Amino acid sequence: MKMTIYKSLEQRKEQGHKSFAVLIDPDKINTSILDELIELSINAKVDYLLVGGSLVISNHLDECVQHIKRNCDIPVILFPGSPSQISKYADGLLYLSLISGRNPELLIGQHVVSAPFVKQSGLELLATGYMVIDGGAPTTVSYISNASPIPADKNEIAMCTAMAGEMLGMRLIYMDAGSGAKRPITESMIKIVADHIEVPLIVGGGITTPEKAYLNCKAGADIIVVGNAIEKDASLIKEMSAAIHSVPVKI
Ligand code: 1GP
User: Fold this and answer.
1) Where along the chain do its domains lie?
2) How far is the CA of 1 from the centre of ligand 1 (A)?
3) Exposure string (b/e) for 7-19, b if CB count within 10 Å is 16 or more?
């Protein structure tokens, strides 16, 4: 039987294995770039491909996901900026609720409107408490969400937000400094959040070096997401993946 994405995430966390997810923004790629990313991801043993962005302008999401699925076995998880960014061809969907914000539309409103459509998609739904952390500059996500991010030095707010998300039943927590963030999330914030939740923790936003990815994993991140840095230099996939997978397994 095929293992579901969530089961594999849980299992990897239990075993102390860290995961690497490459973020692909359908707006920023064409078929030849996509082919290159797929090849590099296969060779580097990337664990997941996330597809989406805060603002997807083009309408070739289906095409992009189908192309990936035709060319590799890496699970494709949608990371949608809005309910319109759903493709039934993916394997799973980060079903995000922006728990760091106080915009009711992104906490529950858009979910209500799109519920029948999301259910019909047949995608594996990964209920995710999505937390935007101030990354030092307004990012697309902070503008579009119309919600204040958690200040970068307020570790306790992040901790309590993640705990509340988990107790409300969210199965993943995603801490995001926003794509292209000037300042990625600090290790001290990652550590305090990781120490207070049991569900897998995703960390992303402004991670540009393998060293930072490694330190984030050591601090407690289970899955590292990198988009922007790879758009600039796809060869980073190999080094990032090696760094993340080299984090010693806890016994
Ligand atoms: C953004 O966490 C992701 O939502 C990835 O951020 O593009 O800065 O790697 P970057």
Assistant:
1) 4-245
2) 32
3) ebbbebbeeebbb
Ligand 1 neighbourhood includes 176 CB (under 6 angstroms): yes
Cα of 184 from ligand 1 centre, angstroms: 9
Tell me how far the alpha carbon of residue 12 is from its chain's centroid: 16
202: enclosing H helix or E strand: strand 201-204
Kindly report the average pLDDT of the chain as a whole number. Answer: 94
CATH number of 4-245: 3.20.20.390
pLDDT in tens, 37-63: 999 999 999 999 999 976 666 778 999
Question: Mind listing the pLDDT tens digit for each residue in 83-109?
Answer: 888 999 999 999 999 999 999 999 999
How would you class 102 by CB atoms within 10 Å of its CB: exposed for 0-12, middle for 13-18, buried for 19 or more? exposed
- Cβ atoms of residues 68 and 51 within 8 Å: yes
Identity of the residue numbered 114: S
Q: Which atom of ligand 1 is nearest to the CA of 174?
A: 2
206 lines ligand 1 (CB under 6 A): yes
